[in-house]
Amino acid sequence: MSDILDPKAEADRKREKRKRVHRMKMGIVTFIAVWMFVSILATVCLTIKVFSLQHDFNQLSKRISGEAKETTTSGEENDAVVLESGDLLVTNYNGTAESNLAQAGDTLKVYLTFDDGPSANTAAILDVLDDYNVKATFFVVGKTDEESKALYKRIVDEGHTIAMHSYSHNYSDLYQSLDTFSSDFQRIQNLIYDTTGVESHLYRFPGGSSNQVSNTNMSEYIRYLNNHDITYMDWNVSSGDATSQAYTSDELVENVMSDVVKYKTSVVLLHDADNKTSTVEALPQMIESLQAQGALILPISEDTTVIQHVSLVQGDTAADTNE
Questions:
Q1: 49 burial class (0-12, 13-18, 19+ CB within 10 angstroms)?
Q2: I want to staple 161 with a disulfide (CB 3.0 to 4.6 A). Which of 58, 214, 284, 299 is the partner?
Q3: Which domain holds residue 140?
Q4: Which residues have C-beta within 8 Å of that of residue 301, sequence separation ≥ 6?
Q5: Tens-digit pLDDT profile for residues 25-44
Q6: Considering only CA atoms, which of 272, 299, 315 is closest in space to residue 134?
Q7: DSSP secondary structure string, 205-230?
Q8: What are phi and psi of 203, to 5 degrees?
Q9: 3-state DSSP assignment of residue 40
Q10: Same domain for 154 and 221?
Q11: 186-193: long-range contacts (C-beta < 8 A, 24 or more apart)?
Q12: Do 8 and 138 reside in the same domain of the chain?
């Protein structure tokens, strides 16, 4: 009892207790600090790894794309499949053919084409084109809101070419059958005419004429367009904005400039959907680079060399193109 009541002993006991509590607090603080440091370090390392993997993925995608293009262009210039009707379905048609390869001294003709609009980015692209006094081609889809209709009109009023990219852009519905395709085609052609007064005769298949998602042989749709006096236009230069939003604006420009120098006529695939802000950012530099190259930037017209991945031609004509 004397120890308990001894003031000195009581003070020592309290002092030891405070020391133990202090050591526990310091231990907890140290543990939390170490844990936070390790977590931050791990997060930084993982972030660096993710960026590294993304860079490797982008480079791999570009390399695969380039290898696929090289494989296509290094094969037979026009591989043909004979259809039951006697027509020939000719692949790799015109775009990368020897007759379109640029030679020294050639003036390059470049057609900037934008798919999937109208959207807010369409308006921004039109502003840029106006700043540089450049005309382009817009393959539009079907939208009936007032802002979209105003953009259809603006495209035409400012001297650009308005063209069809289907009404729905829904692959499963569009390519389900010839009936669904023709119905969709009539809707987009009528919408453009009713809104702008332009009866468009220029079409781009969603996915291109060489797409692999159609439930029906593409020859059926190609024949339909041919019978309705519609020219369908693919592309031979791609910016890359269709397949990856990871490309920077500089990379989009590089993708385009590395290919347009190869051809007399280049039809460049770009997009103006809502999520294509990198394309908008890339456009000024792209135009300036093309102009520095001496290229003519033009809207698609009746005089434009037709670029098609797949073409349906008569047997005799196809035989000539294969020589």
A1: exposed
A2: 299
A3: 79-322
A4: 161
A5: 888 888 888 888 888 888 88
A6: 299
A7: -TT-TT-S--SS-HHHHHHHHHHTT-
A8: -135, 145
A9: helix
A10: yes
A11: 187/142, 188/140, 188/141, 188/142, 188/164, 189/164, 191/142, 191/144, 191/152, 191/167, 192/140, 192/152, 192/162, 192/164
A12: no
Distance separating the N- and C-terminal Cα atoms of the chain = 117
Unique residue bearing structure tokens 């397949």: 243
How far is residue 316's CA from residue 86's CA, in Å, rounded to a whole number? 10
**Which of the residue ranges 187-196, 215-224, 240-249, 266-275 would you say has the lowest mean pLDDT?**
240-249
Does residue 130 contact residue 160 with C-beta atoms inside 8 Å? no
> Do the bridges between strand 161-164 and strand 137-140 make them parallel or antiparallel, or are there none, so unpaired?
parallel
CATH number of the domain that residue 86 is part of:
3.20.20.370
Give the sign of the dihedral formed by CA 14, CA 17, CA 23, CA 28: negative
Q: Mean pLDDT score of the chain, rounded to an integer? A: 85
Q: How many helices and strands, by DSSP H and E, does the chain display?
A: 10, 11
- Residue pair 222/232 in contact (Cβ under 8 Å)? The answer is yes
Q: What angle do CA 151, 156, 162 make, to 5 degrees?
A: 85
Provide the residue count of the chain. 323
| pTM score, whole prediction | 0.73
> 58: closest CA among 198, 196, 244, 233?
244
Q: Say which amino acid occupies 230.
A: I
* Relative orientation angle of helices 120-132 and 277-292, to the nearest 10 degrees: 20
Of 69-78, 128-137, 191-200, the one with minimum mean pLDDT is 69-78
CA angle, 89 as apex, 83 and 91 as ends, to 5°? 150
Query: Could you tell me if 233 and 291 lie in one domain?
Result: yes
Position 83 in a domain: yes
Q: Are 281 and 123 in contact (CB under 8 A)?
A: no
Separation of alpha carbons 135 and 129, rounded Å: 7
Tokens (6 digits) for 83: 């259809």
**Other CB atoms within 10 A of residue 11 CB:** 10
Sequence-distant (6+) residues with CB within 8 A of 229 are: 201
